[in-house]
Amino acid sequence: MNTFVSGFGTVTLSRYPSRPDDQLQASDSADAYLLAELHELDLPDDAAVLVVNDAFGALATPLAGQFHVTALSDSYISRLAVQQNLATNALADSVRFVSDPADLPDISYDAVLIRVPKALSLLENQLIGLRTHVTATSYVAAGAMIKHLPRAAGDLLERYVGPVQASLAVRKARLLRAAPTDDLGPLPALPPVTYTVDDPPLELSNHAGIFARDHLDLGTRALLPYLPNDLGAADVVDLGCGNGVLAIASALANPDARYTLIDESYAALESARINWDRHLPGRNVDIHAAEGLADAARDSVDVVLCNPPFHQAHVIGDALAWRMFTQAQQALRTTGSLYVVGNRHLAYHSKLKRFFRNVQQLGATDKFVVLRARR
C-alpha cells in the first residue's frame, strides 16, 4: 500500500492483484499532475467528472468523495482495483463504472481526466465515444509519464476533441490539454478489424484496444498446432482468451468438449463472442470477464489453454503469467493439463515445474516455446 496526497485529500492505495514483494506504486506523477490541475479549477461539489483508464484508482478514489465520478475502462482488473481502493477508503459504491463509451450516461462532464493507454486504438475509440459528453466549457486533459506518451496521442485528441496544448514536464510527467470545440457531434465507434488465419481456416475480428489487433500474434501461432484434438467431453478454459482463437480452433476439433473463455478486457470478450458465433453458431459457451481463474472451483477443469500476457499496462514481467499458472494448477483436475506458450527467455519450463508433476516441451520456434504441464 502507499499513501497518495493531492489537493483532494489523502487516500491509501494498493495495486491489484497484490503481491507481497511488489515495490511498484499504485499512483505516479501523471496522476498527481492531473489532480493538481483539476484542483485549481475549483469545481462545484455537484460537478460530474469522468476518469478514463484509471488503472488502480489513483484518480477515482480522491475524487469520489468530492464529485459525481464515472470511471471508464476496458479492464476488469482495473475495475477490481478501483473498487478495492474505494472500499479501503470508505468510499464503496461511490463511483459509476462503464466499460464501453457507448454506455456512458447521457450527461455532459465538467471534467474528463484520461490516462493515455498503451493501445492507441483504445484511446481513439474512447475519444470518439466521449465527444457527445463534453461541451466547450469542459476541462479535458490526458496525462502520462513522458516515456509512455506518444505524439499520436495528441493528434487523436486534436482530431476528436479540439486544439491541444502540451504542458511543461513535471516529475517526468506531461499533460495534453484539449479544448473542446462547439461543433462536436456523434461519430461511429471504430469498427472491428478482421483478418484471416490459414490453419485452421478462420476469419477473426478484433475490437479496438486488443493486442495484435490486425494479425495473429506469433505466440498464438506457435501454440495452435499443438492443441489437443482428443478431448472428448472435457471442460476446457481459454485463459486470457483475447479474441478467442485458441478456444475456437480447439472447439472445432473437439465437438463434445465444453468451453469457457476468460479475459480481463471487455473488448476482447466482445471480439471472442463475435468470433465464436461466426464459427460455432448455436454451440454453448461461457464467455466472461474475470481475474483469471481466481473464482474457479478446485478440480473443475480438464484443460487450460493459455498464451499469457507479459505486461500489465507498461510494466513488463511475468507476474501475471505466474498468477495464471498457480490458478490453473488449483483449478485443474488431477489428470488435467495446461497448454502454454511463452517467450524463450521467460523460462516458463522451470517455473511450471514448481507446480506441476510433469512439464513437457511440445514444440519451439526461434522466439517461443510450447509446453504441456500436467497436474
Describe this structure in words.
With 375 residues, this protein is α/β, with parallel strands linked by helices. It has two domains: 2-178, Rossmann fold (3-Layer(aba) Sandwich), CATH 3.40.50.150; 193-374, Vaccinia Virus protein VP39 (Rossmann fold), CATH 3.40.50. Helices cover 26% and strands 28% of the residues. It contains ten helices and 20 strands. It has a seven-stranded mixed β-sheet, sandwiched between helices. It has a seven-stranded mixed β-sheet with strand order 14-13-12-15-18-20-19. The model has no long low-confidence stretch (mean pLDDT 95).
- Report the strand count: 20
The secondary-structure element order is EEHEHEHEEHEHEEEEHEHEHEEEEHEHEE
CATH homology group of the largest domain: Vaccinia Virus protein VP39
CATH topology of the largest domain: Rossmann fold
Morphology? globular
> What structural class should be given to the helix and strand makeup?
alpha/beta
Largest sheet report: 7 strands, mixed
List the helices and strands and how they pair.
Layout: E1 2-6, E2 9-13, H1 29-41, E3 48-52, H2 60-64, E4 68-72, H3 76-88, E5 95-98, E6 111-115, H4 120-130, E7 139-145, H5 151-160, E8 164-166, E9 173-178, E10 193-197, E11 202-206, H6 218-223, E12 235-239, H7 245-253, E13 258-263, H8 266-279, E14 286-289, E15 301-306, E16 311-312, E17 315-316, H9 319-331, E18 332-343, H10 348-352, E19 358-364, E20 368-374
Parallel strand pairs: 3-4, 3-6, 4-5, 6-7, 12-13, 12-15, 13-14, 15-18
Antiparallel strand pairs: 1-2, 7-9, 8-9, 10-11, 16-17, 18-20, 19-20
Pfam families: MTS (PF05175), RLMG_N (PF26049)
Organism: Antricoccus suffuscus
Protein name: 16S rRNA (Guanine1207-N2)-methyltransferase
